[in-house]
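<purpose> Linking amino acid order to shape
<body> The protein record starts here
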Amino acid sequence: MLKREAPHIVFFSTSTCTIDKDLLIAKAAKEVIPSVITVAIGTHVMALPEDTMRSSGCLDIAIYTGEWESASLEIVKNSMNPEKTRGIFYRNSNGDIIKTDSQPLITNLDLLGFPSHDKIERALYRDPTTKRFPKTIVMGQKACINNCSFCCQPAFFGAPTIRKRSIESFLDELKWVEALGFKELMFNDATLTADMEWATSLFEGMINSNIDLIWNCSTRADRINPEIVKLMKRAGCHTVALGMESVDSVVLKNIRKQIRPDQIKNAVSLMRKEGIDTLIFCVVGFPGETEESIKKTISFLKDLDTTFITLGIAVPTPGTDFYKYVEENNYLLTKDWSLYDPMKKPVFSYPDLSDEQIGYYSAYGLRQFYLRPEYILKRLLSIKNLNQLGTYLKSFVGFLRRYVLSDPNNRNR
């Protein structure tokens, strides 16, 4: 493809656990087109831009700003003069790594236009919550109202102020997506109903425009009420993800979650009453965690009428306060970024809670929830077509291989 397209610039996205593989894109691009300009985007690059550039001589530019779109446009315009682009680290003619001034915030998100949904490889986007196909991803807000210590959103994109697209612009994108033949969406906003007035206008607009798309989203348990849940259902919502992380008050305080278990229980009840599935995000291993607190969380989840849960291992992402905490207290076991994955063994260990214990309870809790006979029966009875059956069976087989048939302490292999 590189030979055929012969690009002048290659942009590529990165994450912490994939950074080593991501940088191979820059290497491959340089091998095919030595003069090509390689640009890395992503939260790992934002946290460690200089380290990333030093680790690969094939990387020309690292975008450190959260305003990736503006920086990318400036890179294209100033490709021969990178010093004129704000929000980047670049390598000058002497090989020195230089930082430019910061990129100003984009106040009018409508100016960004729409992503190229028409160029998406549709076969790639499917997950256990998918009910119709093909599916794409949309986003109406930047930043987050939350300030969780483990999350990239407040660390890199700001909190608690969020910036929102106009409802008119967002609805125009959804209509275009429908016209392209997509059947389902994922709203990729951190908290779709953060501004409940804005969200209400969005859902009413979808209903009044007769947009035939079903969708899933994430939000907070304290940012919904019966009225907005009814609107969400009418607008096509089928699954809502809610972050709980833990039921232990010490853990919740340490990570600045500011959500109570009773709020989660109430939110799930509201959703299930309207026929909306729920996914509860939980994590094992945050500061203050004990065996007892983990067991309390697992017990709570089993009593909760939620459709899905996650119980991943805490990952100290570079740039977050959680990472600073484990690093400053010498709890980190490795800086092999490929291991910074919630599906692998922990990369840290506490004096009173070992990495082996954290790994064990993550797998144990998932088995306790998903292997209950009553849960399996309920899921089977909820299947409405062969497409859903295939998705469910594929996910279930993958679950069995990872959490039942394998040793939880050998996940890194």
